[in-house]
Amino acid sequence: MKKAVVLLSGGIDSAVTLYLARERGFRPTALVFDYGQRHSKEIIAAKRIAKKARARQKIVKFDFPLASSALLDQKKRLPANRSFSEIKKGVPSTYVPARNLIFLSIAASFAESQRAHAVFIGAHSEDYSGYPDCRRGFFDAFQKAVARGTKASSRIRIYAPLVDKNKKEIIKTGLRLGAPLRLTWSCYAGGKAPCHRCDSCLFRERAFRELGVNDPYYEKS
Amino acid sequence: MKKAVVLLSGGIDSAVTLYLARERGFRPTALVFDYGQRHSKEIIAAKRIAKKARARQKIVKFDFPLASSALLDQKKRLPANRSFSEIKKGVPSTYVPARNLIFLSIAASFAESQRAHAVFIGAHSEDYSGYPDCRRGFFDAFQKAVARGTKASSRIRIYAPLVDKNKKEIIKTGLRLGAPLRLTWSCYAGGKAPCHRCDSCLFRERAFRELGVNDPYYEKS
User: Which of A52, B9, B129, B204 is 20 to 30 Å from A167 by CA-CA measure?
Assistant: First the structure.
């Protein structure tokens, strides 16, 4: 079986990506980043999802030097109850400088070390159009940098299979693949239950609502 | 003054690059990676060089997940007493998977966090032609990935001012700029004194020999 490294955050998108990698015949290793995110609950979610998918998992601890982001700093206020058009304007305060650049670079190194030729990332630009590192143009440019900066024989390919999809389509794909969406965690706030106010909660809720499907997160006993 | 982030390893190339950044009117912050290199002596060297240059310094600890490299693993044998033509053939066992990709990504994040628009790296392909991540093609591709993956307003530029120079020219530049070459450390082995056998020692010694200059490392009292 072909090896793949899959960035797994604990959210819906990366969980679906993990199952997409499996469907495409890859044996995935889940790479989970513990980077001081305020919603560290997502790490626990990621571990559960990897276990459910019977994927190997590797936790990488990484501290962003001096990065300032509402996603890292409990003292900063998270954007709340914004309209979708508002969310899509500009770079949100939850942007972490060059996060996906770093995560993908580490994933590429990890892939090269274990002779995997594939790295999967679940980013998509539909909801996260404000994040520069979630767009197709970035992934294409990064692909070229990886090809130049690693051994020619490593032939590492970057897959961002969801990049042009929206949350609704991603959930549909997840349901089709039997991805354990009930184990996923989206909320940016680190609370016990989802806050229903942050951008991430709003996108998740709208998608399930529009699909006419109950969010399986709440079906947990 | 313009801010810059300079990758500082403790070797000659990055020390000269630090002084080049200063000459070009930048106020540099030295980014030093503690990544499990067997020659951790270079970290001490880097700190001394940064101090001498009155540059701010930031040490970043990073463990390469599962990476296999003679530069990280004391049990692996370092290449020794190779001819220069031999060294330039293929990727050496001291290659660390995607190392410069990761280091530059972290430097770009750091630069974006503190609104620096410049990242300097002292890599050059003359001696290190076997390392894919030391070549101009890689830096050009990485530049595009950074432009796409960070905020448009961040305008981060990657400078690799030594990329087409050889060690002799680099040392000459360092002498002209008054860079503290006596504080630099090149040897891959972690010994008390340079081993005189590893690729890095051989390049350093040949360059000083051809220049007809004594290596100031040995002038230390």
Answer: A52
Size of interface A-B (CB pairs under 8 A): 150
Using one digit for the tens of pLDDT, what is the confidence trace for A60-75?
Answer: 998 887 777 888 888 8
Task: Please list every residue in chain B whose beta carbon sits closer than 8 Å to the beta carbon of residue A133.
Answer: 148-150
- Tally of domains within chain A: 1
Q: How much is the pTM?
A: 0.94
Range of the domain at B179: 2-219
* A145·B150 Cβ contact <8 A: no
CATH number at residue A43: 3.40.50.620
